[in-house]
Amino acid sequence: MSAPSVRQRRLGAELRTLREAKGLTQEEGAQAAGPGWDKTRLSRVERAQLGIKPDVVQLLLDKYGVSDPEKREALAALAQAGTRRGWWQTYKDIISPAYAELIALEADAKSLRSYQTLLVPGLLQTAAYARASIAAINMSSTPDQVNALVEVRQQRQAVLSRPEPLQVWAIIHEAALRPTVGARGVMRDQCQRLLDLMDLPHVSIQILPLGAPAHPGMAGPFTVLAFPESADLDVVHVEGLASALYVEDAADVVVYGSAFEHLRAHALPFAASADLTARIKQEHK
């Protein structure tokens, strides 16, 4: 059995929370789901071990007294997402399940808050910067594999230009803009890309200067993904060299949100961030 997706876990956890808030047992919830359902099957859904169809979710929400149309639509969409094929599945032989999950979450998210220490966030990278950084990090990848991963990274950026674009707030440590990545001019063009993105109304970029005081971001980079239906379903993505961690517990997600607010306070204001980025761009000649 494959591992449950983050979206399955989010849906299962929310359905369990709604049922318990109504004071219903799993057996009572299963009765509302219709023929063929029992408490064991509902338990498997709540533990993200089994998928569920959107129409059955609607029946459960009727039983649980959920009338908010936006919440109902969002939870049904989570159920539908379990069977949806995304463009990224074309690259299933080259990207890990955890990476595919991140792309799917970005596609579903309303907003994203990212803190990066030594890399420009993937959604903000130029193709040349992406190629150089991917080749450096994925040490055993062939040139063809690197090219495919660059294609994936570029296609991910479509969330910034969709009809209702992803709201992105990125805090980038100045140290990420200092190294020479790739051939001459790559960092200069990458800095210009950041300057161009700063003009978009749905993209906010701040630079955390080298001289900033001690801060919670010293623990490492992270990304908080927020979704339309409920703050309780927000997810934190923490990426490592060989794997990724998804933080889903609501209390832990709040800790990362608080950390991001501290980083915002330590980072340069928007105008000063743009000025510093422009100066660093001139240094990469």
What is the structure about, briefly put?
By secondary structure, the chain is α/β, with parallel strands linked by helices. It has 11 helices and 6 strands. The protein has helices at residues 6-21, 26-33, 39-46, 54-63, 69-81, 97-108, 127-137, 143-156, 186-197, 250-266, 270-283, and strands at 111-116, 167-173, 203-208, 222-226, 235-239, 244-247.
Residues in β-strands, percent: 5-15%
Q: List the secondary-structure elements in sequence, H or E.
A: HHHHHHEHHEHEEEEHH
Q: What Rg do the Cα atoms give?
A: 21 Å
User: Main β-sheet, in a few words?
Assistant: 6 strands, mixed
Query: What is the total number of structural domains?
Result: 2
Please count the helical segments: 11
Structural class by SSE content: alpha/beta
Order of adjacent strands in the largest pleated sheet = 3-2-1-4-5-6
Q: Overall 3D geometry? A: elongated
Could you give the topology of this structure?
Blueprint: H1 6-21, H2 26-33, H3 39-46, H4 54-63, H5 69-81, H6 97-108, E1 111-116, H7 127-137, H8 143-156, E2 167-173, H9 186-197, E3 203-208, E4 222-226, E5 235-239, E6 244-247, H10 250-266, H11 270-283
Parallel strand pairs: 1-2, 2-3
Antiparallel strand pairs: 1-4, 4-5, 5-6
